[in-house]
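Data deposition worksheet. Section B asks for the primary sequence of the deposited chain exactly as it was used as input, without tags or linkers unless they were present during the calculation. Section C holds the resulting structure in token form. Section D is free text for depositor observations; keep each observation to a single sentence. Incomplete worksheets are returned to the depositor.
Section A, Depositor: J.P.
Section B:
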Amino acid sequence: KKGNFDLVVIFPASFLNALMCYNAGIKYRLGIFSRVRRFPTFFYTRRTFPIGIRHAIAQTLEILKNAGLKDDGWKTDVIAPKEGFKNIKNSGRKYAVIQPGFGLAKNNGPPRLWPLKNYSKISDFLNKKYGLNIIITGSRDQKKMGDSIIRGTKNKKNIINMCGKTSLNELISVIKKAEIVIAPDTGTGHIAAALNVPLINLMDAPIEEWRPIGDDKKIINIRHPRKIVLFENWKIFSKSGGVQTIKETEVKAAIEKLI
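Section C:
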């Protein structure tokens, strides 16, 4: 709304976001220009032009320096609720968390989505070799993805589909007590890293920019980058490569290193 703010930090960089802030009459509009697909916008009052790829947090702090704020170093902190999450009937058994989806379910497809059948096989592997129950997390519209994973497993009674059944605080409580988390470079993984819960992070984005922040000994990033094809259907990245090409054996090897 017009006149509500004097300063706005625009991240991620977006022409539309900057235009909205300009039209709202916001006096100071700080943003970043990073790589071709984040083209420079002429609606910023101050711009940051990073050299090379840096972590997204570092890029954001660089923007804030333009507002006169001091960078005293950074880390990610997540505070888990003390009460925990009482709605999981887990019989006291240890469990792993699997988050197969990211964002809206309709957008969950190659190359960033790991095949659901692979999650089924990994669920059975975790249950058989380590005696772990499996909790599948995600948003309400990802419930069908969780159901599909369960249908593909041999030990269906040891898996709980919690998609759409947790608040953010409850999700944090679930992650905090997990033995390991497997996720495709999404918020659940970043929470696990901040809580120092062992994490297998499946990704195709640059590790330097989007890696989870936490104890590096408890994080394994398995990265298969997408093939870069300029101007294929007006997109920089093609649909080949990416997370979908990660092998089941790679994830099993990572599990054995972390558990």
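Section D:
Helices lie at 15-23, 56-65, 116-130, 143-151, 168-176, 187-194, 207-210, 248-258.
The mean pLDDT is 81.
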